[in-house]
Design brief:
With 438 residues, the chain is of the alpha/beta class. The protein folds into two domains: 12-377, Divalent-metal-dependent TIM barrel enzymes (TIM Barrel, Alpha-Beta Barrel); 381-437, no CATH class. Helices cover 46% and strands 12% of the residues. It has helices at residues 38-42, 48-51, 77-94, 103-106, 113-134, 161-180, 203-224, 248-257, 270-275, 280-289, 316-328, 350-377, 379-387, 394-400, 406-416, 427-437; strands at 12-13, 23-24, 32-33, 36-37, 44-47, 98-102, 137-142, 185-189, 194-195, 229-233, 242-243, 264-269, 293-297, 337-339. It has an eight-stranded parallel β-sheet with strand order 7-6-5-14-13-12-10-8. The chain binds D-xylulose and cobalt (II) ion (CO).
Length: 438
Amino acid sequence: MKEFFPGIPAIKYEGPDSKNPLAFKHYNPDEVVEGKTMKEHLRFSVVYWHTMRGIGADMFSMTRAWQRPWEDGTDSLAMALKRVPVLFEFCQKLGVPFYAFHDRDVAPEGKNLVETNKNLDRVVKELKKYQKDTGVGLLWGTACLFVHPRYMHGAATSCNADVFAFAAAQVKKAIEVTHELDGAGYVFWGGREGYSTLLNTNMKRELDHLAAFLHMAVDWKKEIGFKGQFYIEPKPKEPTKHQYDSDAAACLNFLREYGLMRHLKLNIETNHATLAGHTMQHDLEVAGAAGALGSIDANTGDLLLGWDTDQFPTDIYLTTQIMLTILKYGGFTTGGTNFDAKCRRESFEPVDLFHAHIGGMDAFARGLKIAAAIRKDGRLAQFVKNRYRSWDTGIGKDIEKGKVGFKELEKYAMKLGEVTTNESGRQEYLENLINEFI
Ligand code: XUL
Ligand code: CO
């Protein structure tokens, strides 16, 4: 069998003292943490779009900068088929159990939808064969509703009903192939579901259409018996100036308003949360508290750049916060840690893909181990529990139970005279406590 990454061995765990750049220092797949192996906890996934289809483009150059010796420079079906073994060799060498794709990442558009679907079916057959041979599975599938110019006004939120119909047909097919490939989930990221100006936009109508679209998707999922989890992926801007799925709270409000809460969870992406003016931990907490924390797109932005840079996560403090929240809400079930991340344009060699993923996996492994140690220590959780103890008995308990109203509370406050029971929030003490473990 042809090797696409010659000279790069299967990546092994060598421990924290290793100086080998092609080895894990912390990700030890079979090591047990809180009763599960690291592999089961983290459920890593490689994305087709950046890792297989990225060329190192940025807004000042759409010219390929990255060396990918297997590429023949075409977007043909033949090339699409040639790429499949590359992805699986990469995942196998890394020991990553999953991958994720958009329909158009894996197969090119044809001259009409019939031909496009035929192209997709042909590549899906190949993907299925390689999944079976390697044991690498599909974390989630999705549809690309943002590259083709027909989607210039959006897809489900387009002002043009023909575009809505076209997008529906495309998503119907994308859900079917995800089902065919036994995908653990399906993601809706609102590519251009937003607006560039309100001057030409009927927001209410567009939101109603988006909800109708998702209800149709839910119906189709049921009809074909697809059991994977549906997710919405929040993002506040890019490419539009305002995306409707702007953050976790906006997504949850939308799902509740349109009766979709039972059918979708959230796929939270680090750089999207920060673009929304939140931390990743904030959006995870919002999703978790609503019982809707499904999966994560693992990456990071750059402090000094205000756009979606999709960098690989290397910050241990960040991965610790993420894993603390994921563990708090019971860990991943259908979801996983999907590297929606790309190398920098300057990192143009195939080996850079390995360095990038190894670094991300090690950063998450450390985050997981540190989070587990903080939980075992117990002081952090105990502090938070204790901070709210006034709600466990007496007047607090009565309020939570709905036993008292303003009248009773006025009486209580008058008797109290003044509040003398406030305690320090101890933020600095807690920050120091976290640093004990990092
Ligand atoms: C775009 C983004 C997408 C989704 C899948 O910012 O994150 O790649 O993850 O459509
Ligand atoms: Co993403």
